[in-house]
Amino acid sequence: MYAHRNEVEDDLFTQRSSKIKAMKPAQVMEYLGINRKFIMDKKTALRQGSGITEEDADEARPASHRSKVGTDDRVNTPYIDAIREIERIESLNNPGDMVSCLSTSFEKLKTAVVDHHKGKFELSAMDDVLPLSIYVVSMANLSNPASHQHMMADYLRCNQRGYELERKLLCNFDGAIRYVCNDWELDE
Predict the structure, then answer these.
(1) C-beta of residue 148 within 8 angstroms of C-beta of residue 90
(2) What is the distance between the alpha carbons of residues 79 and 48, in angstroms, rounded to a whole number?
(3) Where on the phi/psi map is residue 169: left (φ > 0), alpha (ψ -120 to 50), or beta?
(4) What pTM was estimated for this model as a whole?
(5) Domains in the chain, start-ordered, CATH in brackets?
(6) What is the pLDDT of residues 140-188, one digit of tens each?
(7) Exposure check for the chain: N or C terminus, fewer CB within 10 A?
(8) Where are the beta strands (DSSP E) in 23-144?
């Protein structure tokens, strides 16, 4: 039912996000006006969870397994853990679990910032959160984001108590989908 009702927007998102993913992550972040302190390029992207840069990890690998220049590897994509968590929404059927994915993705986004800056900066202002949320959603491999957004919105509408943060995160998710579909100026 949700997929049928949101088919046009889901298809538009898929087409437009594939063009966005063809761009370099730093270009995407710059286009979105993400605060410079939160822009991580290939050289500074963290292997999240390990606390080391991809360059450090690459040097530790045997020469035969090192990154090739020009290779587009998602491991080097900034905020990859948050992106992968958002992608998990596609595999879930329960809207409560989908809402949990939104929260976990946001936590992974915040953790990446704190780890990258060794605790000197953290992600707190909505002026910083929204552009990063758009980045994460636009870089994720999602085929039915509008359908899932509507399913989560209905779930939260039925569960009035609590979920204040999740409502804000869902609003950001919805805004990201709409931005990719309608506002992002792409060379057609």
Answers:
(1) yes
(2) 8
(3) alpha
(4) 0.82
(5) 2-183 (1.20.1050.80)
(6) 999 999 999 999 999 999 987 888 999 999 999 999 999 999 999 987 6
(7) C
(8) none
